[in-house]
Amino acid sequence: MNTRRNMLAGIGGAAALLAGWTAMRGSAGLAEAPSAQGTGAIPFPNVTLYTHEGRKVRFYDDLIRGKVVTFNMMYTQCEGKCPTMTANLRQLQALLGDRVGRSVFMHSITLQPLLDTPDVLKAYVEEHHIGPGWAFLTGAPEDIDAIRFSLGFYDVDPEVDRNLASHTGLVRMGNDSYQRWTMAPALTGTQHILATLNHVDREWDAVS
């Protein structure tokens, strides 16, 4: 029930963000909006993050702009859904083959940024045999929250939202160039996640 409720909350949150963005686009103050204003329909905060390799990146400019991307939330000490999510996404990475890191870029963002330093995330990547093209990211707690809300990874109930054990088990997928964004449960079958991702990848649609 938590997964279904959180999925609906996240999708509802994304819809609210989209409505807000539409309103912003019609306002005179568009240029003053603090988030990155790319080609996508939803504004994303262009905050600084750090990869598991210690590389400094900007959330919108470096990770999203002009790319086909996937995002999920996790933390290394999670003993609930995170290990299964990671295993499912590892299978997705295998199915994507050389598309990962070339035309599709995978990202996992920690919900415990003060504990999950780049070194801790690097150890997690090595433990789970994560290949190239999939970055694990950390940053300032307030920046992680801004990203989480922009992606629709939150619960409308503040108490539930603060409980890491009930965090949403979704994968956010998008194509910034064509303003296509969608979600899929990370705990579902890998083929379903792949099919959902292919719907936003026009390059793949053209050759499939």
Automatic annotation (TrEMBL):
Q: Which PROSITE patterns match?
A: TAT (PS51318)
Q: Which residues form the signal peptide?
A: none
What the entry lists under InterPro entries is as follows: SCO1/SenC, TAT_signal, Thioredoxin-like_sf
Which Gene3D superfamilies has this protein been placed in? Glutaredoxin (3.40.30.10)
Recorded family membership: Belongs to the SCO1/2 family.
Record-given protein name: SCO family protein
Record organism = Metapseudomonas resinovorans
- Cite the source lineage: Bacteria, Pseudomonadati, Pseudomonadota, Gammaproteobacteria, Pseudomonadales
